[in-house]
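quick q for whoever's on today - can somebody do inverse folding on this one?? i tried earlier but teh output was garbage lol. tokens:
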């Protein structure tokens, strides 16, 4: 999954927040209102939404004459793809992972430890 440009990322953040709050898929007008501080034309918002849908970041459905947009994946899934892509850029994944583990906070290290323990338990014959 490729990275997002600044405006694409802002649109995705609006939609992720909207969905996190329990909202239904949003229209271009609703997204534009949420981005009101950016002074964007309605057509610009529509273009960005269309581009994100074509890239596979959004799903859309018709609602009368308008389209309603929802994210294709969670924010966490997107960030995971970015992290995996970054790992592909290194010649030494083990060193990159070790360096990453050394750079996280104690709480984050505990989250990683639990996730790895859960993964190990699932893979163990039992």
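ok took a stab at it. sequence:
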């Amino acid at each position: 999954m490729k990275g997002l440009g600044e405006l694409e990322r802002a649109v995705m953040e609006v939609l992720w927040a909207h969905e996190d709050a329990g909202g239904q898929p949003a229209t271009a007008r609703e997204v534009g209102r949420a981005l009101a501080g950016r002074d964007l034309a309605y057509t610009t918002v529509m273009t960005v939404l269309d581009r994100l849908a074509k890239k596979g970041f959004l799903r859309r459905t018709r609602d009368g004459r308008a389209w309603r947009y929802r994210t294709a994946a969670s924010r966490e899934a997107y960030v995971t793809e970015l992290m995996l892509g970054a790992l592909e850029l290194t010649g030494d994944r083990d060193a990159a992972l070790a360096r990453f583990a050394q750079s996280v906070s104690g709480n984050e290290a505990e989250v990683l430890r639990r996730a790895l323990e859960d993964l190990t338990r699932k893979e163990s014959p039992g």
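fwiw Helices lie at 6-20, 28-34, 42-55, 75-88, 93-103, 106-123. also The beta strands are 58-63, 66-71. so keep that in mind when u check it
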